[in-house]
Write a structure and sequence with these properties.
The chain crosses the membrane at residues 12-34, 40-61. It is built from 2 helices and no strands. 61% of the residues lie in helices and 0% in strands. The chain has one domain (8-60).
């Protein structure tokens, strides 16, 4: 595994946090059902995916260089 990504880009980390969240909230007297936790996970995943897409589009629009692959480059 040579590729590195941000800690916050890891779905494992987000999933673990969401799995722990109901138990952590119960300490403070806030009860979260399994259905609520599943819904939260679904929404968080959708939000992260959307933000990632928007960042990619923004990055491409603001880029100062064009994208080329070696197969398309002319010598």
């Amino acid at each position: 595994m040579d590729d590195v990504k941000s800690f916050l880009a890891s779905k494992t980390i987000w999933g673990a946090g969401i799995a722990i969240l109901p138990q952590a909230l119960s300490i403070f007297g806030i009860e979260v059902s399994a259905e609520d936790a599943q819904g939260i996970a679904s929404h968080v995943d959708a939000i992260i995916t959307s933000v990632g897409g928007l960042i990619a589009i923004y990055g491409r629009v603001m880029a100062s260089k064009s994208i080329k692959t070696k197969a398309w480059q002319k010598n």
